[in-house]
Design goal:
Length: 130
């Protein structure tokens, strides 16, 4: 489907819709607006907890529309804020599980190496082949 007539934007809309649909399934929600806001809250909280370079590296790997939400209102600093749980832990873990799936598809490279130690508890463990 062509929403804008520009491939770069239409592809980003498709990818963003796919990510949002997966997240909604992960948390078993039907409200797209609520799901989008919660997802953005979590990735922005992660962004605020990272120093500048890791925050940029993480954000640059997100789909274009999600990247825009990620960087929205950001004030870069090398003094990251303390981690504050932006939503229920279940929501944070759902975002991280979805990002894990995307990392496996090459969407987000080496996110684990970027996350501070205190966020590792929310990140799903790697599945290892038997």
């Amino acid at each position: 489907m062509n929403w804008t007539g520009l491939d770069v934007f239409d592809n980003s809309i498709r990818r963003t819709n796919t990510w949002l649909k997966e997240f909604m399934q992960e948390v078993n929600w039907t409200d797209r607006r609520l799901a989008a806001l919660a997802f953005c809250d979590v990735i922005q909280a992660v962004r605020n907890h990272l120093s500048t370079l890791p925050a940029v590296q993480f954000g640059n790997q997100l789909p274009l529309l999600i990247r825009g939400a990620y960087f929205e209102g950001w004030n870069p600093t090398d003094n990251p804020s303390a981690w504050e749980l932006p939503h229920d832990e279940i929501v944070v873990k759902a975002v991280f599980r979805m990002l894990r799936r995307k990392a496996d598809e090459g969407e987000i490279e080496s996110l684990e190496g970027i996350l501070p130690e205190d966020l590792q508890q929310f990140w799903p463990p790697k599945l290892r082949a038997a």
